[in-house]
Write a structure and sequence with these properties.
single chain, about 230 residues, mainly alpha, about 70% helix, about 0% strand, flat
Length: about 230
């Protein structure tokens, strides 16, 4: 494509984009209240989902399909990092680990104590996501940080991460399976088909806690996998 044709193509693209934007904005009545969706969430979120945390009811129930897309994006990111770091073989990793500089004395002493506490806190965050601020992504990130600490002190423990990959796959399968069960029993994907229980209790909000557990485990496993892949670079 020569320079003249390139300019014409750019002008046509700008013109088409402008027409699309003009048409889109012309369909929005000026001055009309467009907060009816937010008002519905506020007024009916607790009744429809049984979740004490309104943000959770929006993220996992009303916009659960969007959350599935976000989990998929993270999965693709983890896959991309793994593909880029693929040529760093495990045999080379063992040699690198042997040459690693030892962690500090403080880390060596504190890690065995802090690791289970951080891990339990991460699990607590996503299990109680429907009751208090937090959820699957936050809890998964906390879990990954606990393994990062373990990784710094005991890198030789991470020669094999097959168990993390299995956990990630099972968590993703659980999310999709719950969504399909909602389609079967409720008529649409991710329908909250379980009983909502008593608001404010751990066993409430139907499928929301199950989805958050799946998200927390999947995010934790994926972020740990990314850390492991990055650890293999020179």
């Amino acid at each position: 494509m020569n320079k003249k044709n390139r300019k014409i193509a750019i002008l046509l693209l700008i013109l088409i984009s402008g027409i699309i934007l003009l048409f889109a904005f012309s369909q929005i009545p000026f001055g009309k209240d467009r907060m009816f969706v937010g008002k519905y969430y506020i007024e009916n979120g607790l009744k429809d989902t049984g979740s004490q945390n309104l943000v959770t009811s929006v993220v996992v129930d009303f916009r659960g399909f969007d959350t599935l897309g976000e989990v998929t994006v993270l999965f693709l990111a983890a896959t991309g990092v793994g593909a880029l770091m693929f040529y760093y073989k495990k045999e080379k990793d063992k040699e690198k680990f042997a040459e690693e500089k030892d962690a500090s004395f403080i880390l060596k002493v504190s890690t065995p104590i802090l690791f289970p506490l951080i891990l339990i806190f991460g699990v607590y965050v996503f299990i109680h996501g429907h009751l208090t601020p937090g959820g699957g992504f936050q809890g998964g990130a906390i879990i990954a940080s606990s393994f990062l600490l373990l990784y710094i002190v005991f890198p030789h423990l991470f020669h094999e991460l097959e168990s993390f990959k299995i956990l990630e796959s099972l968590a993703g399968l659980t999310f999709v399976s719950v969504g399909l069960l909602g389609l079967i029993f409720g008529g649409f994907f991710l329908k909250n088909f379980l009983g909502k229980g008593i608001v404010g209790t751990l066993f409430s909000a139907g499928i929301i806690p199950i989805i958050y557990i799946a998200i927390g485990l999947k995010v934790g496993a994926e972020l740990t996998g990314i850390l492991d892949d990055l650890r293999r670079r020179e």
